[in-house]
Amino acid sequence: MQPIISVNNVSKKFKEVEAVSNVSFDVKAGEIFAFLGPNGAGKSTTIKMLTTLLRPTEGALFLSGHDVIKEQDAARKVFGIVFQDPSLDDELTAYENLELHAVLYGVDKKIMRRRIEELMTLVELWDRRNSRVKTFSGGMKRRLEIARGLLHHPKILFLDEPTLGLDAQTRKLLWAYIQKLNANEGMTIFFTTHYLAEAEAIADRIAIIDNGKIVASGTTEELKQQTQTNNLEEAYLELTGKTVRDEIVDAADSRKDMIRRVIANRR
Amino acid sequence: MDIIYILWLRQMKRYRRSGLRMVLSVVQPLVYFLTLGFGFNSLFQQAGRGSYIQFVVPGVVAQTILFTSIFWGVNIMWDKQFGFLKETLVAPVSRLKVMLGGSLGGATIAVLQGIVLFIIALLFGFHPYSWSMLLLTLAVMAILSMTMVSFSSGIGAVVNDMQGFMAITNFLVVPLFFLSSALFPLDNIPPVMKAIAYANPLTYAVDAMRGSLINQNHFSLPVDFAVMSGTLILLFYFSIHRFKRIQA
Ligand SMILES: Nc1ncnc2c1ncn2[C@@H]1O[C@H](COP(=O)(O)OP(=O)(O)O)[C@@H](O)[C@H]1O
Ligand SMILES: [Mg+2]
User: Fold this and answer.
1) Is residue A144 in some structural domain?
2) Cβ within 8 Å, pair A104-B87
3) For residue A12, which phi and psi values (nearest 5 degrees)?
4) Distance, CA of B81 to CA of A160 (rounded, Å)
5) Residue B96 falls inside a structural domain
6) Nearest to A176 by CA among A195, A197, A153, A201
7) Closest residue (by CA) to atom 19 of ligand 1?
8) Which residue has a Cα nearest atom 4 of ligand 1?
9) Is the CB of A39 under 6 A from ligand 1?
10) Once rounded to an integer, what is the mean pLDDT over residues A47-72?
11) What is the CATH number of the domain that holds A40?
């Protein structure tokens, strides 16, 4: 069967930095796919290219068979996304933000009302539905963004560090909801996270990216075998740690270096 | 239709909730009107050209609309900065609708401000020569605001920092306004200025405004409307093109 997400030899250069270099991978329809890597590895850049926000310098990307660069409109119909960075309208109320999203995605009016209530209740914001978003705390905004991302049910859902900064209870609730969507509607889930236990528990398959390159991919089992480790976190550190030593000499980006050293020290 | 409407509605809500900004947007043109209208009135009359208030009201209405519209792109900058732009950019809707929704919102606000100023002018003794011609005035307001709002959105799409945006729009708006016929009649001015004014699309909007409000035309209404529509199409095309190329 044709993969629902296909990334072929994709690179993205920003002036000096090559954020993503010659990356290729596929995701099968209905899979839950985790995309892991240290800060600055190129995860968000890859997601932005997949979701038509950035043009790759080289390579091709396909969503459900549509070329993301040449058939942007068709590609946009297949996915939904929760961005890493904020993307709400602060001057609108929580409800208005979701309503706007529902209209943009052509969600049927009746389904819309029911689903908005269901999702806002899930993220415990229903009582605050008529408050302007600018009065919300960071965590509340994050929850609202996730609720908005789940509002229309796309074939593919991208989640870029969706649960960052949320408490353990909320994270658990949200992942359970997302797993339900995956099981009931066959929705393909593509997510990034720094909580490796989350990835280990939920993902069918994992790809690890470091310094713009895919360093490993496979099921948790495969990654553990490949690295001779006992859990995903160890495997991850083994993989991303190794490249530190390889690249430390010619690394151009000192910030990235620093982050890697911190990770390496943690081992 | 739903999409254009909800994006238009978003701008209306944002405007209504903006508080002080909303008040100031009405007060500022009022100040221009009072200083220009009364300040220059006696001079104008001494020169034997009749009431300057009658002459300048169409110009100040055009100015109000111009100034509100040309800074509209600030909203695109904010949407970029606060991230909301991404939400509309990934949505499965045509860029045309996204542009139209937002721009119609901006144009509505600009026209409303033009109307408010017009009403204030009425209170100060301005009298249009024909009430039925006001429909044409409204059309001029709509075309002018839509033109400038979409042009400004196009600039907002290209530029990535607020300072840059303000520099560009200020650089554009001042000559655009002062080198049109908004403040002075086009006859009896030096040929160079006349040439510049003729090349300035705003001149034709002001002329149409004057034609419909006080029945004074330098050109003629058909010419004015032809130039205005042409400018609208051209600048809208520029902007939609820029808008399609935004990367976030
Ligand atoms: N718009 C941009 N301009 C310049 N460099 C960028 C831009 N976006 C990302 N980068 C750089 O690209 C690299 C990858 O960033 P990103 O994809 O955000 O990483 P991740 O999401 O894995 O943390 C980083 O070095 C980052 O600084
Ligand atoms: Mg990221």
Assistant:
1) no
2) yes
3) -140, 120
4) 18
5) yes
6) A201
7) A40
8) A14
9) yes
10) 97
11) 3.40.50.300
Q: Which of B193, B195, B218 minimizes the C-alpha distance to B205?
A: B218
Of A199, A178, A237, nearest to A33 by C-alpha is A199
ipTM of this model? 0.91
pLDDT digits (tens, 9 = 90+) for B99-146: 999 999 999 999 999 999 999 899 988 999 999 999 999 999 999 999
Which pTM was predicted? Answer: 0.90
One-letter amino acid at B17 equals R
**Within a domain: residue A122?**
no
Number of domains in chain A: 1
Residue A160 included in any domain = yes
Q: Which domain holds residue B93?
A: 2-243
A97 Cβ inside 6 Å of ligand 1: no
Establish if B36 belongs to a structural domain: yes
- Structural domain including A254 reads 28-53+71-78+154-266
The Cα A73–Cα B90 span in angstroms is 9
Enumerate the β-bridge partners of residue A11: A58
The tally of domains found in chain B comes to 1
DSSP string, B60-115: HHHHHHHHHHHTTTHHHHHHHHTSHHHHHHSSSS-HHHHHHHHHHHHHHHHHHHHH
> Please, which pLDDT band fits residue B36 given cuts at 50, 70 and 90?
confident
Classify residue B190: in a domain, yes or no: yes
| Cβ A212 under 6 angstroms from ligand 1 | no
Structure token digits, residue A228: 């001779």
The reply to whether A96 falls in a domain is: no
| CA gap A43, A7 in Å, rounded | 13
